[in-house]
Amino acid sequence: MKRQIPIEEVKPARTGPLIAAATLIGIGMGGFVDGIVLHQILQWHQMISAKLPPDTLLNKETNMFWDGIFHAFTWLTTALGIYLLWRVAYERKAVLSNRIFGGSLLFGFGLFNIVEGIIDDHILVLHNVREISTNPSAWNFGFLGISLVMLAVGWMLVQRGRREVQVHH
């Protein structure tokens, strides 16, 4: 016969540490995709290319320096996320869930894009998503739109994962 567990003994599954770790990794990965794909491969913009167009060697070098500072930030964010994830797994600090992990990565990626897009593209006007364009604002707002979808889908996956974990815990 199965023992009934009094309601006060039932503890919800801990998911916060996994969400925090994966969100930080997602923020870092979002920064790396931005820096590697948009800055380096496609060369649509650099960190301060709206303020200092990379049309001379000195301007290009200055932009490259600030891209490096940006990459250092994304590396540190990713490293911190990996450290927290290690602690979650090693110390059994939270229930592990693929859906929560993947949703948190996507949420972090979208969060990075929203914050970076609003601050760098709209408030400080350091760069546009695509500098050489007949309508840079369309690229900037399109980037934010895609980022909002990433944020929402990530959030929904995390919430669905949390419900599943609670049912199976």
Automatic annotation (TrEMBL):
Keywords: Membrane, Transmembrane, Transmembrane helix. The chain crosses the membrane at residues 21-44, 64-86, 98-119, 139-158. It holds the Pfam family DUF2243. The keyword Transmembrane helix applies. It comes from the Bacteria. The keyword Transmembrane applies. This is Putative membrane protein. It comes from Pontibacter virosus.
